[in-house]
Amino acid sequence: MPIQNVITAPPTTQIRVGIEPAHNAFHTLALLTRARELSGLAEWVYTTWDALTKTEQQDTDLVMYGLNYVVKPPRSFSSFEAYLEYLKAEDPYVLRDRMLEEYEKMECCEMESEEIPISREEALVHVDTYLAYLKQRFPEKFIYSEIERRAYTYAVDPPKLQTFVVNYMQSMWDRFLSAEWQRNNPMLQDAVIAFNQLELSKMSKIEAIQLVVGRELEDKHWLTEIEDVTNLVFVPNSHIGPYQSYFQYADTLGIVFGARLPEGVMMDAPDLSRNEILVRLNALADDTRLQILKYIAENGEKRSQEIMEGLDLSQSASSRHLTQLSATGYLIGRRCEGAKCYQLNSDRIRDTLQAIEYFLLVNK
Q: What is the pTM assigned to this prediction?
């Protein structure tokens, strides 16, 4: 019999919008660790962080930084409670090993020619070896030694590790997140309905991302990941403000974005409209950020260093304010001569005023 060539169609990317309750709630908890460095998040993030004791804040840093790959949901769950049941029932050694397996995928740091890669087994022999193991896989600026030393004490004792993360996640859900989730769930449902009207499934992955996020993705790592996934899910979140976050499992990439009513969709969803207006006004409700916008409006495109010097801002303050203004769309950033340059987005200012007018005077 002659051999016939079988021609198959390339795999089709499935694009959808969904609430993804476990990933959604997990990302909200992870935002607590950013309360000290990011402005523009939902007020719940800041008030919850302030309500934690010093020990609870340290535990939050430990879970979200040192043990992140232990607690990050490995798949989709029907509810956060279902995810908690998974954490309780899973083999503790599987939880620990999943974290180490993720570490072993990291190859971001070049080793010296005579340096020998540290194995998983060697890393668990001593805390200093564990830190060296991490430094072979992560830039040193992302390694918090004090947190990782604590993480090591749990990595070498998986049953203790499981008890700790289960108790932490259960406590945060019961004390803070459960009531907040119930309050915001109707708005998230409305966001899913609204964005599904855009027929994202008929677009390319990049087109869909730019429409939902509202701008091009700057993180080159995720641009690479997008090429390989066959399932893309957009997850509206009520706490992330103007920022985005990502998660990945199997062949699925999730993009968490601020819940809002997309342009061009006619729908009675006042909570979504109000949430978007609050995000935009938050960026304007600060004297320093207004000065930055005025400075660029009067002087044209400026490099970040010029903005710092022109307004006498510290590096950290400048970075925080420019990040929020860019994320909210009031500034357009680009790379220029090895630096970051910013120009005013006049259209964003005009459509913000129009959104407020529509919400207060038209949509009654």
A: 0.88
